[in-house]
Write a sequence for this structure.
């Protein structure tokens, strides 16, 4: 079986520090007179490298791209263009891109920015993929952390510059418990009022599920 590390590019890992620590921001500017086309990589930096990772090495986290504008301004109208194919880029209310491209579209296509003088910012965020529920399997909560740790462990010397994120923080709930296979229960530690799960800690060995008094509103990586 080929080594999965062969598909991992160092520049992808180098950007993780930016993504997690600060957000990766850029700008997109529409020409006042006409539509303009730019490479998809310029609007969605590093997404092509993310897709090059083996699916099992990236199913625990995703890259989210948000298009922001100044208050009161409309967002730029953006379209994927590949020959005669035109696909409007769909955004949710927060400006997150909903229809990310595949590798073929990234290689062959462009992004068309409609004219009109609008400008916007592009922010890239790294988000854990975990099913939010009152009861979450411990393996599902550990998977994002393990994928991240496995990825940066293969980044070589660059791993020294990448934040070590060993846990998930669950927001929107005041508390949480770990339930072990033998029936024992342990309260999750609280940080800034939010329960945190760090699967590699000795106290978490044998964890079967995480239980919360309500469905968490969000999970995020934490140190």
């Amino acid at each position: 079986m080929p080594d999965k590390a062969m598909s991992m590019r160092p520049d992808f890992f180098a950007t993780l520090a930016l993504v997690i620590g600060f957000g990766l921001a850029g700008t997109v500017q529409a020409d006042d007179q006409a539509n303009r086309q730019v490479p998809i990589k310029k609007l969605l930096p590093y997404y092509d490298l993310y897709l090059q990772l083996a699916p099992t090495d990236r199913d625990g986290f995703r890259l989210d791209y948000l298009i922001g504008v100044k208050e009161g301004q409309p967002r730029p109208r953006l379209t994927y263009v590949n020959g005669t194919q035109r696909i409007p880029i769909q955004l949710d209310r927060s400006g997150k891109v909903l229809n990310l491209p595949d590798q073929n579209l990234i290689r062959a296509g462009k992004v068309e920015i409609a004219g009109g003088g609008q400008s916007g910012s592009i922010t890239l965020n790294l988000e854990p993929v975990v099913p939010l529920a009152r009861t979450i399997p411990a393996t599902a909560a550990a998977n994002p952390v393990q994928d991240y740790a496995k990825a940066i462990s293969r980044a070589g010397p660059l791993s020294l510059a990448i934040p070590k994120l060993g846990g998930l923080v669950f927001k929107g709930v005041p508390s949480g418990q770990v339930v072990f296979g033998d029936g024992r229960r342990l309260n999750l530690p609280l940080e800034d009022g939010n329960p945190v799960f760090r699967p590699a800690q000795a106290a978490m060995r044998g964890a079967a599920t995480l239980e919360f008094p309500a469905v968490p509103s969000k999970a995020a990586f934490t140190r």
